[in-house]
């Protein structure tokens, strides 16, 4: 989207205002802005609450709300006030209802229940800051209580779990949406965009899509639920190679809507119920001519129950025996004026997390990340044979060589250090493979690295178990249909893995951490459970994703005081425990309806905890990827082996096609020098603003006054009086 004149001149105005500030009497500057008086009614909604910042309006018939920014008079509606005459009763019910349900009736899970078309009883109680409404659908015998509260920063809407009622076994609640059309707009009536949490972040513009798209964005917060989905891959080449990449998981429970021209926006944070909710976003033309985005909470699902052990024989549809149990709550953080954009959303989310203690500032000293692979296994005449790629001695030699080139204080994760190699899972004790040098040599390496100012972490996938190497008869999860979950690898050595129950992961990982701590090792890199949540069956009892999340959260809470963790692509509920974010995606899933990719989550975390990008080795366009790291504030990562990656061709690590140190030595040195220089300018600073100008130049402004210009085009471009050659960047203090 072209940046508006107001937006592009923001930096110039900032300088003018700074000069005015220096010349203006203090008494004048101290005078507070006066908000205009809130009108008694807007679009049929009556004023029910207000504070210094916002006014809340409500319409009893729909339980719909309007939030007005009192300073500007601009507002957002939860119910569509304009009807173009093309919509049937069901669509109008969706567009205006404060609550929208999908019910399960027999094997039909798409039956709509709203507040317009159904026989609904509402008992409304007004409070000082909003209202509470007991809602009951008489013909379906389901109900719940909606509580709405105006806050100083916006609006909170919640449904307490204990208020949800299902009083007839004929109808069950499948999903619940709270204010599904909050901020919805018609065609291109508004200038702005919807923010979706795909990858690092993406925007869908509120322009007229002219009916080009048949579907929109729909993705589970914290990834798909393997407890329900079929885990087979349908698109394979030669029955083993995946031809379609998986979509990015949603890392944090957020989404947003911005009217940039009007200067009002919100960032919605799903505070409760995120573990089993999805983000739904549809641009205009997808069924109707309205742009809308919302969270949908899943209470129950239908699933296929096989009729025998042979799953190909037959199955029947059945509904979950119990619904989910969690309060459902969305916090809308409203933003005004020049903050009403995705940069403002990122800043608001950062402050929100810091204020709640869900994000803790950590040492973000720049360190180039150089990870190592120790050993893997290839099939042998009998059993498997070790393929040794990088020993402890090799790492020490690589460190010495890089130190001689001025590259020191590295950040390293050692994978495949354990006895039996990288896929001998789970790891229950600190015992290094003798072929890399053994436990004592590894312990000595870790100590020496830390003494010299580096960071060294032992890698551990705490979720998976290798049934070829360990007994997986017990303590592994089954899906809700009571079939053991199997993760196919499409490799020849270890063809499949199972998932440990969260309780078993907690027990074994705690045991491993204690074993390492006895040797003085307390720096661990964790994967698997950091970015997976699932519904599962164990001993004929179904456990929810909320149960899974509680186990994982308790695991890290108990170990956090004595262990330093870094995590591979962690979900937001674990950010408070990690000292670094590993493998941050710098791109999106590239859905056709996405108009712009933005580094939203990098903007949230930059300056608070270190963020590391995916491995440079495996990026096809390394020049563009370099600029992406500059833009997002992410640090570079390399996956290194002493031996040639060709040695891995018959192992499960055969996808590592380029890793040999001798190939990447000079690149590591160059990247370290470039990013050391860059981070000297922005160390400890947060990203305050991110802009994409009309000519394609990306402008990143830090809160310490440093601005970085990035030119992704192949031709020379200029911005704010600065000229950039093609595929280059410039730092301006």
Folded structure, characterized:
- The chain is of the alpha+beta class and 733 residues long.
- Among the domains are: 99-177, no CATH class; 185-356, no CATH class.
- Helix content is 20%, strand content 33%.
- It has twelve helices and 48 strands.
- Strands 8, 9, 10, 11, 12, 15, 16, 20, 21, 26 and 40 form an eleven-stranded antiparallel sheet that branches.
- Strand 9 (130-137) and strand 10 form a beta hairpin.
- Helix 8 (502-518) packs parallel to helix 9.
- The radius of gyration is 27 Å and the shape is globular.
- Residues 1-33 have low confidence and may be disordered.
Keywords:
eleven-stranded antiparallel sheet; disordered N terminus; globular; alpha+beta; eight-stranded parallel barrel; 733 residues
Summarize the structure.
With 733 residues, this protein is an alpha+beta fold.
Question: What is the overall pLDDT average?
Answer: 93
**Which stretches are poorly predicted, pLDDT < 50 over at least 5 residues?**
1-33
The number of distinct helices, counting runs of at least 4 residues, comes to 12
Q: Cα-atom Rg, whole angstroms? A: 27 Å
**Number of beta strands:** 48
By oligomeric state, this entry counts as single chain
| Shape, per Cα inertia axes | globular
What structural category do the secondary elements indicate?
A: alpha+beta
Major sheet details: 11 strands, antiparallel
Roughly what percent helix? Answer: 10-25%
Task: Report the portion of residues in β strands.
Answer: 25-35%
> How far apart are the first and last residues' alpha carbons, in Å?
27 Å
């Amino acid at each position: 989207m072209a940046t508006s004149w107001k937006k592009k001149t923001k930096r110039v105005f900032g300088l003018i205002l700074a000069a005015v500030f220096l010349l203006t009497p203090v008494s004048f500057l101290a005078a507070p802005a006066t908000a205009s008086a809130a009108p008694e009614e807007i679009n049929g909604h009556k004023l029910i609450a207000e504070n210094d910042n916002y006014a809340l309006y409500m319409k009893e018939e729909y339980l719909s709300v309007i939030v007005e920014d009192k300073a500007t008079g601009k507002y957002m509606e939860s119910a569509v006030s304009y009807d173009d005459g093309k919509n049937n009763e069901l669509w109008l019910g969706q567009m205006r209802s404060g609550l929208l349900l999908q019910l399960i009736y027999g094997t039909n899970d798409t039956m709509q229940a709203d507040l317009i078309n159904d026989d609904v009883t509402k008992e409304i109680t007004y409070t000082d800051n909003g209202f509470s409404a007991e809602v009951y659908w008489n013909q379906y015998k389901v109900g719940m209580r909606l509580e709405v509260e105006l806050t100083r920063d916006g609006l909170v809407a919640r449904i307490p779990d204990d208020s949800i009622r299902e009083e007839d076994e004929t109808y069950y609640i499948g999903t619940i949406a709270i204010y599904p059309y909050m901020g919805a707009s018609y065609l291109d009536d508004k200038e702005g965009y919807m923010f979706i949490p795909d990858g690092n972040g993406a925007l869908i513009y509120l322009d007229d899509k002219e009916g080009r798209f048949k579907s929109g964005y729909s993705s589970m917060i914290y990834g798909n639920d393997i407890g329900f989905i079929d885990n087979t891959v349908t698109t394979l080449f030669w029955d083993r190679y995946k031809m379609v990449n998986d979509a990015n998981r949603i890392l944090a429970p957020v989404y947003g809507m911005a009217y940039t021209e009007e200067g009002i926006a919100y960032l919605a944070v799903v505070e409760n119920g995120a573990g089993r909710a999805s983000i739904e976003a549809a641009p205009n033309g997808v069924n109707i001519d309205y742009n809308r985005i919302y969270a949908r909470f899943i209470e129950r699902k239908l699933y296929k129950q096989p009729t025998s052990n042979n799953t190909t024989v037959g199955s029947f549809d059945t509904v979950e025996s119990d619904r989910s149990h969690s309060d459902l709550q969305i916090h809308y953080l409203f933003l005004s004026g020049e903050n009403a954009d995705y940069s403002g959303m990122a800043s608001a989310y950062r402050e929100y997390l810091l204020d709640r203690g869900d994000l803790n500032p950590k040492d973000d000293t720049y360190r180039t990340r150089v990870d190592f692979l120790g050993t893997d296994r290839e099939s042998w005449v009998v059993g498997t044979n070790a393929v040794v790629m990088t020993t402890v001695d090799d790492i020490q030699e690589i460190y010495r060589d890089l130190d001689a080139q001025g590259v020191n204080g590295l950040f390293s994760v050692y994978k495949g250090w354990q006895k039996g190699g990288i896929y001998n899972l789970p790891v229950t004790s600190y015992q290094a493979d003798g072929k890399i040098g053994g436990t004592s040599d590894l312990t000595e390496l870790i100590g020496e690295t830390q003494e010299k100012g580096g960071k060294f972490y032992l890698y551990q996938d705490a979720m998976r178990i290798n049934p070829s190497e360990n007994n997986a008869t017990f303590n592994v999860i089954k899906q809700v249909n009571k079939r053991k979950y199997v993760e196919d690898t499409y490799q020849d050595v270890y063809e499949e893995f199972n998932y440990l129950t969260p309780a078993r992961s907690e027990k074994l990982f705690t045991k491993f951490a204690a074993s390492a701590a006895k040797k003085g090792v307390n720096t661990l890199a964790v994967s698997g459970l950091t970015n997976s949540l699932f519904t599962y069956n164990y001993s004929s009892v179904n456990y929810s994703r909320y149960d899974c999340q509680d186990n994982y959260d308790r695991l890290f809470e108990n170990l956090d005081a004595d262990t330093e963790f870094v995590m591979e692509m962690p979900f937001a509920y674990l950010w408070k425990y990690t000292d670094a974010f590993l493998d941050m995606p710098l791109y999106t899933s590239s859905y056709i309806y996405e108009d712009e990719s933005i580094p939203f989550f990098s903007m949230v975390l930059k300056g608070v905890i270190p963020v590391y990008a995916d491995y440079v080795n495996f990026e096809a366009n390394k020049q563009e990827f370099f600029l992406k790291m500059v833009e997002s504030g992410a640090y570079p990562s390399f996956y290194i082996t002493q031996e040639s990656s060709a040695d891995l061709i018959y192992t499960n690590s055969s996808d590592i096609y380029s890793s040999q140190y001798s190939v990447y030595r000079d690149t590591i040195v160059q990247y370290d020098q470039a990013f050391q220089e860059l981070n000297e300018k922005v160390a400890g600073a947060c990203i305050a603003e991110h802009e994409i100008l009309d000519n394609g130049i990306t402008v990143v402004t830090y809160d310490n006054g440093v601005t970085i210009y990035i030119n992704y085009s192949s031709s020379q471009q200029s911005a704010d009086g600065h000229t950039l050659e093609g595929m280059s960047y410039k730092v301006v203090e």
